[in-house]
Amino acid sequence: MYRKAELSIAIPGSIVSDIPHLREKTARIGMIGRAVAIFRVNEIVIFPDMPMKNQDRDIHLIATILSYMETPQYLRKWLFKMKPELRYAGILPPLRTSHHPITKKLRDLKVGEFREAVTVSRVKDGVLVDVGIEQPILIKNKEIKLNQRITVRICAIFPNPEAVIVNREEVPIFWGFRVTASTMPFGRLVKERAFDLVIATSRLGAPFANVKDVILTRRKNANQILVALGAPTQGLYEIAKLENLALENIADFVVNMIPSQGTETVRTEEALYASLAILNILTSI
To answer: Most-buried pick from 34, 76, 87, 213 (CB within 10 A)?
Structure first.
């Protein structure tokens, strides 16, 4: 089995530009959030595929809704105020990832368990944090600003529950995704981030079956992988041309993940599910 690599996806800011109503925009973004959670994507990068002044609002909307989805339910009241972008957040599907626990009682906590937390108050010997149970718990000898999200490990339960701060990278299981709203167009983004393996998806690309062996070989030594998708109105070839670049000079592979598709078009969220399902094989062989 290959070692774990950091997996990012890149989606254009115009993925909801063809939808007029916020409710339907929210539903499409929710499908994307579920896909990246199912297939353990570490980062979603939203990049502009038209002038930023025309796309700021959509990129902000996508980033806000995805960040809200990724945040455990018990922390949302601390980290998200009433925002018009979240008007239809109630229709978003729950992620049910490991960092979204459904246990809400102190008696259900286990020593060694990881939780996402937010600092809610300061006390003489540290700070109290909300970890999703009926009472805040103590982190000793720490000074952290209030309303800050952190990752913790439960180190004691009785007689008084306590936790310690850990780096997110210390958690040995999939622990949610980051959301990055980029101001850089696709080609510049790829160049600046220096990914080890960049896979662009396009119906004009090579069928996956034809390139899977060489992708598997490249995958062995990749630490940072990017999978990029096009927009409803233009594919990655067209998006690359906006920078006067050839897509083949940006990506290591241009791949058709749905050869012989039965529909005239494949929506971005549909292509995302198909692509991640196929690429998921790379981490299980």
So the answer is: 34
Domain boundary among 115, 146, 170: 170
Asked whether residue 148 carries a pLDDT value surpassing 70, the answer given is yes
Query: Distances from the Cα of 73 to the Cαs of 86, 102, 130, 224, 265, in angstroms?
Result: 14, 9, 11, 29, 35
The answer to whether residue 1 sits within a structural domain is no
241 with 218, same domain: the answer is: yes
The DSSP string of 93-151 is PP---TTS----SGGG--TT-EEEEEEEEEETTEEEEE-SSSS-EEEET----TT-EEE
Q: State the residue range of the domain holding 124.
A: 106-170
The answer on 184 and 81 residing in a single domain is yes
In a domain, 165, yes or no: yes
The verdict on pTM exceeding 0.85 is yes
Listed in order, strand segments (DSSP E) in the chain are 6-12, 43-47, 114-123, 126-130, 137-140, 149-156, 162-166, 178-181, 197-207, 224-228, 253-256
pLDDT of residue 158: 87
Q: Could you tell me the pLDDT band of residue 1, with boundaries at 50, 70 and 90?
A: very low
pLDDT of residue 264: 85
Q: Tell me: do 75 and 125 sit in the same domain.
A: no
Q: Is the pLDDT of residue 200 over 80?
A: yes
